[in-house]
Every structure is written in C-alpha cells, then in structure tokens.
Please model this.
Amino acid sequence: MGEPAAGTISLREVADRLGVHYMTAYRYVRNGRLPAHKVGDEWRVDPADLAALRPGARRTPARRGAPDRDETRRRLEARLLAGDEAGAWGVVESATAAGAAPAELLTTLVAPALHHIGAQWAAGRLAVADEHRATAVAHRLVARLGPSFVRPGRRRGTVVIGSVAGDRHALPTAMLGDLLRGEMLEVVDLGPDTPAESFVATAASVDRLLAVGVCVSDSGLLDDVPEFVRTVRAGVGDVPVHVGGAAITDEALAARVGSDGFASEPADVVALFASPRVSVLD
Ligand code: B12
Model:
C-alpha cells in the first residue's frame, strides 16, 4: 500500500473542515464534485481542491439553472482517471437528471473526456496506465448506456462498422454504433483490429446494407488504409465505404484514403451513414 501524498487530508478531515457529515463528504467524492484518490482503503484529498468546493469559490454555471458542461466533463474525467465506475456513473446520472439525452451524454461528455485524456497523455501529463484505467471505466459506462439507444420500430437498414486492421481502439466504434442505433439503423460493430475480409464477409451476411464504416484512430496506420479500403470496396459492391475517426482529420485526407464521405461532427457523422442516396438498397 502506498503512502498518502504529502499535504493531502483524509475524508474525515474534509468533513470536519466543511462542517458536514462524513457521508456527505464521501458523496462529494463519489459524484465527482471533489477530486480525491485512494491510498489503500482511504480517500485522500488535496486541500486546494477542497477550497474550490466551498460555495464562495464555486464556478458560476454558464446559464442560470444549466450545468456547466466543462465542469461536468472535468468531474467525469476525474472519476475515469480514478478508475471509479460508481462515481463516473454518478456524473452521468446527474447530467441525465439535468436533461441530457443519451446521445448528448456520449458526444458532449464521455467523448470529450476521452479526447482530453488523450491530449493529456500526448502532452506527457498522463501515463499510458492512466489512459488504460480510464478507458476501462468508459467501456462500462458506454455498455450501461447502450440499451437507452434502442427503440422499437422498423430500421432504416444496416451498417457494418469496425476499426481498421491493427487499430486497437474499440470505444470509437462502440460509441458510433450507439449513435447510429439511436437513429433507427441496425448496426453490426466488429470492434477493434478488424481484417478487411471480416468486413466483407459480414457485409455479405446482413439485410439491407446501407454503408460500411471503417474507423482509423491511429495515424500510424494511414499508409495501409487505401489498400484496406480497396479490398473492402471490392467485396461490398456499390455500398458506400466511409472512413473516419481521430486520424481522419479532414476531407482531403478522407478522399486520399478512399473514403466515400467525410464527417467529424457527431450530427454529420450520423447523417453520413443515414444518407438517402444509399436507399436504393431497400
Ligand atoms: C482510449 C485510447 C486508447 C486506448 C484504446 C482502448 C480501447 N479499448 O479503445 C489504448 C490505450 C489501447 C490506446 C492505444 C493507442 N493510442 Co490511443 N487513444 C485513446 C483515446 C484517449 C480515446 C479514444 C476514444 O475512445 N475516443 C472517443 C471516441 C468516441 O472519439 P472519436 O474516436 O473521435 O470518435 C468520434 C468521431 O471521430 C467519429 N468517428 C469515429 N469513428 C468513425 C468512423 C467513421 C467512418 C466516421 C465517419 C466517423 C467516425 O465518431 C465518434 C463520435 O463522435 C484517444 C484520444 C482521442 N482523441 O480520441 C487516443 C488516441 C486515439 N490514441 C492515440 C495514440 C497515438 C495511440 C497509440 C499509437 C499510442 C502508442 N504509442 O501505443 C496506441 C495505438 C494502438 C493501436 N495500434 O491502435 C492518439 C492518435 C493520434 C493519431 N491520430 O495518430 C490519440 C488521438 C491520443 C492523442 N491525442 O494523441 N489508445
């Protein structure tokens, strides 16, 4: 068991300093309002974070009654990095209670938290272990939110999505899949590191195929993508093959790797897959 970091205080002391019950202080930690980390069985808090929690020092919401989106994202990010699923879910629930729809939870809360974690890692401020721990919790949040995207009714058609061979990122297609399901599309998500042949075989096995989506997060794989897309395209006939994700930064690059379309904003991504120009298949 590690030693508490110098200067940090226990939750009991937090409760004393705030003049609240121990369980109230604990709730602040679990719902992400108060950053804390665990040493053995004990939560430790930096007094600077405690000062920021005091009413006088609290951030003013952007709009009266509206939760501050950045603040909520920061709270979620802290819980992800602490590996605290219950606390992270608490943040998601409080955003839901404040009116956020499931798609908004993914696009304005979970994805931005992950993007920020990625940027912090790239800047050398987080270790890869932190990123792994946060991703594991994010996977569980996405899984818990999954059923809320499924509605009864006729599907517009099927899309097959997955990450390009060699790309280990699984969350982008999991989240993209839910956004598309929420728009009445049937989604087959092949997950990370999918061979081109698996895209082809799956595409041949589904009803009313509308489009294929290849996700590329790691730009180190970009050289292989044009050949990959050619193989997929040769196997799926006239169906559009879209390439997107963190490594596909603009339209020109999308075209260069052989994509039929480009979109980066969530609403445009959904529109790209649900585009009427592919409705001939129905
Ligand atoms: C979690 C994570 C990991 C985890 C993945 C675990 C898992 N099970 O998924 C682990 C630790 C394994 C990992 C590994 C690596 N990672 Co990483 N990772 C991330 C991180 C933090 C989050 C990814 C994520 O889930 N994002 C959330 C999703 C929802 O966002 P999104 O991908 O942008 O998707 C949205 C849109 O792009 C779009 N979209 C997604 N797919 C598609 C497809 C189509 C067709 C379309 C139209 C749109 C679309 O819709 C989504 C919803 O809006 C990102 C940071 C980031 N900016 O995303 C880095 C990031 C993607 N990783 C990065 C890197 C460099 C790596 C490594 C190379 C690091 C290394 N040296 O080992 C390895 C690569 C391993 C490999 N071969 O794949 C870089 C990539 C930079 C680049 N473009 O090349 C990023 C951007 C971090 C950074 N800022 O530098 N990573």
